[in-house]
Specification:
- The structure holds two protein chains of two kinds.
- Chain A is an alpha/beta fold.
- Chain A has a domain of about 40 residues.
- Chain A is built from twelve helices and ten strands.
- In chain A, the strands form two sheets. Chain A has a six-stranded mixed beta sheet, with helices on both faces. In chain A, strands 2-1-4-5 form a four-stranded antiparallel beta sheet, covered by helices on one side.
- In chain A, helix 4 crosses helix 5 and helix 5 packs across helix 6.
- Chain B is of the alpha/beta class.
- Chain B has three domains: about 150 residues, P-loop containing nucleotide triphosphate hydrolases (Rossmann fold, 3-Layer(aba) Sandwich), CATH 3.40.50.300; about 70 residues, no CATH class; about 35 residues, no CATH class.
- In chain B, helix 3 crosses helix 4 and helix 3 runs parallel beside helix 5.
- The radius of gyration of chain B is 20 Å and the shape is globular.
- In chain B, about 50% of the residues are buried.
- Classes of the chains: A alpha/beta, B alpha/beta.
- The interface between A and B is large, with 46 and 46 residues.
- The complex binds adenosine-5'-diphosphate (2 copies) and magnesium ion (MG) (2 copies).
- The site of one adenosine-5'-diphosphate has 12 residues of chain B, from helix 1.
Chain lengths: ~300, ~270
């Protein structure tokens, strides 16, 4: 388990986002929302960012795409480096090419008269040539499986469809990193699974780095390469999912450890050892079968 | 008691959101309404406090049809916590927000103070007493909305998607709190698609799909029925999935609780060895 892991400053690192001792206080706030966050996101991984509400997840995401400090102001110390550039030296528009943020509530992000126009909006802002724009919009709609909705007004769509539109808007910008802040909280489990599958495909097929802010670890865990747990403005756990979920600390902080992992722990407390730590129900069934066959 | 008789509701846009709902919620019942997005859950519960009035059919609360009562009259007995807290919050500080309805209901100032303290404590938002609700994160705002309803202690509490945006610990606190409310004989109706939350709380479950009720029963019965669960766009609890991933070992598989599952597995291992 890597807790408070040291930052590698080597040039040959695959880090796409790196923060060093990041401290941030919103303007007018008494307390810092981030209190020394040092975290490295590697290119191509799917990272789950979780932790108690109010611990600073959304704030950290705002640092990744430059909304902090460029839009929110406040006081920032330490460093945020995205794709090799310091965020403070970049404009929000420059950063948008690297990092796209899908808001928690898609309604707040969609406002155009049609899905197509909404998806084109960001590209217009970047002054992308028209031919290229049409190509990219079609591509983004196709990747998210909503080509048939292109003429529809976004506000008439279901929550799951709106969420896909919001993802398409960000995808059209072809960012290196896509951040999704609790993207499925309004969706029923089947709708949520579909979104996770879209995200997973974008990661596997296009190599887009994914940062997923989630509490619903039961559904999301199986896609993760890396889990970061925050608490009170700090990173408290940082590592691969099995280690993080199985740690005592995760349970103490109140991370919603997957039931598969809980089952493993309770069996262990009762003297039955499975040969690995399961994160998903499929893994748990398989590991259980091993011990059941052994006896 | 809430009695729903052949309730139909069509929005002005022409969407037929409810298509003949018949349901009785008894005093002291703990009911979870589950189902896919757009199934009509919110539309249904908005009829329970008179926010929406039936297009056809009837909703009767303690013998009075909601057609014959104002939202304010109904609200004293039926508290409603909205899915999106932003539809509910408008005061400048958290404290004022929680006190607002109490003032409207004519509580005395000392009672208001006590109840506000109690509610802020309960939902762990005392430190935001003087803060604007709009400065808070989504999960925190949701708790402010919850506190403001619980403060006036209504007989029936309806929570529309209370777990959205809540972290695991708050969810667990909320769950214990709901169970406790129910133990104090309050009627609690929770609209949710959070399967694990329901599995741990063990309420009566009603599944909706396309404006109709598809099933009603206890949580174990409903959530372990693969066909019903799929029909309502939810999934079985993880524990159910783990057990159903095992071959037929002659063990009970309609299990939703992790402790029950482990004791079944441990028994099985003991018998085998
Ligand atoms: N716009 C804002 N202005 C001032 N304080 C804020 C703002 N947004 C969030 N905060 C505060 O910063 C802290 C971290 O919030 P946030 O990053 O939203 O947490 P999370 O996303 O983990 O729930 C909280 O104490 C919250 O009240
Ligand atoms: N204010 C409204 N105007 C028109 N249609 C609505 C409105 N609110 C909900 N609907 C529609 O009614 C149906 C049921 O919605 P809702 O009760 O919100 O479902 P649920 O809460 O189960 O997700 C959906 O088709 C939805 O699009
Ligand atoms: Mg947040
Ligand atoms: Mg709803």
């Amino acid at each position: 388990m890597i807790e408070g892991s040291p930052i590698t400053v080597a040039n040959e690192t695959l880090a796409i986002i790196e923060t060093r001792k990041l401290v941030y206080t919103y303007s007018g706030a008494k307390k810092a929302a981030l209190k020394g966050v040092s975290v490295t996101i590697e290119s191509g991984e799917i990272v789950i960012l979780t932790g108690p509400s109010g611990c600073g997840k959304t704030t950290l995401c705002r640092c990744f795409n430059g909304l902090i400090p460029h839009f929110y102001g406040g006081k920032i110390e330490g460093e945020v480096v995205v794709a090799g550039h310091k965020v403070v030296d970049q404009t929000i528009y420059e950063l948008a090419r690297h990092v796209g943020l899908v808001f928690q509530n898609p309604e707040n992000q969609l406002f155009a008269l049609s899905v197509e126009k909404d998806v084109a909006f960001g590209l217009e802002n970047l002054a992308v040539p028209r031919d290229e724009m049409i190509k990219r919009v079609d591509w983004a709609l196709q990747m998210t499986g909503i080509e048939d909705l292109s003429e529809r007004p976004p506000h008439e769509l279901s929550g799951g469809q709106q969420q896909r539109v919001a993802i398409a808007c960000v995808l059209a910008m072809q960012p290196d990193v896509m951040i999704l802040d609790e993207p499925t909280s309004f969706l029923d489990p089947v709708g949520a699974q579909k979104i996770f599958e879209v995200i997973n495909e974008l990661n596997k097929e296009l190599g887009i780095t994914i940062i997923l802010v989630e509490h619903r670890l039961d559904l999301a865990s199986k896609y993760a390469d890396h889990v970061v747990v925050m608490d009170e403005g700090k990173v408290v756990l940082d590592g691969e999912p099995r280690g993080v979920f199985n740690s005592e600390k995760a349970r103490l902080i109140g991370v919603g450890v997957p039931k598969a992992t809980r089952l493993y722990q309770i069996l262990r407390e009762n003297g039955t050892h499975l040969s690995g730590v399961p994160v998903t129900s499929e893994e748990a069934s398989k590991l259980l079968l091993e011990v059941l066959k052994r006896d | 008691m809430i009695e729903v008789r052949d309730l139909h509701f069509t929005y002005p846009t022409g969407v037929e959101a409810l298509r003949g709902i018949n349901l009785t919620v008894r005093d002291g019942e703990f009911l979870a309404i589950m189902g896919q997005n757009g199934a009509g859950k919110t539309t249904l519960v908005k009829h329970f406090n008179g926010l929406l009035k039936p297009t056809a059919g009837e909703v009767v609360i303690d013998g009075v049809s909601t057609r014959d009562a104002s939202v304010a009259q109904i609200a004293r007995n039926v508290g409603f916590v909205f899915q999106n807290p932003d539809h509910q919050l408008f005061c400048e500080t958290v404290e004022e927000e929680v006190a607002f309805a109490l003032r409207n209901f004519g509580f005395k100032e000392t009672a208001i103070k006590n109840r506000v303290d109690w509610a802020l404590n309960l939902l762990d938002i005392k430190r935001y007493r003087e803060t604007s609700p709009f400065m808070l994160s989504g999960g925190e705002r949701k708790r402010v909305a919850l506190a403001s309803v619980l403060a006036w202690d209504p007989k029936v509490v309806i929570l529309d998607e209370p777990t959205i945006g809540q972290d695991h610990r708050q969810k667990e606190k909320l769950r214990q709190f709901i169970v406790q409310l129910n133990a104090q004989k309050k009627t609690v109706i929770v609209v949710t698609h959070d399967v694990e939350f329901v599995a741990e709380s063990n309420p009566q479950v009603m599944l909706m799909s396309g404006g109709e009720i598809v099933a009603e029963g206890d949580a174990r019965e409903i959530l372990t029925d693969q066909k019903l669960v799929a029909q309502a766009s939810i999934v079985s609890p993880e524990i159910t999935q783990i057990l159903s991933g095992l071959p037929d070992l002659g063990i009970q598989k309609n299990v939703i609780d992790v402790h029950e599952a482990t004791s079944i597995l441990l028994d099985l291992l003991e018998v085998a060895s």
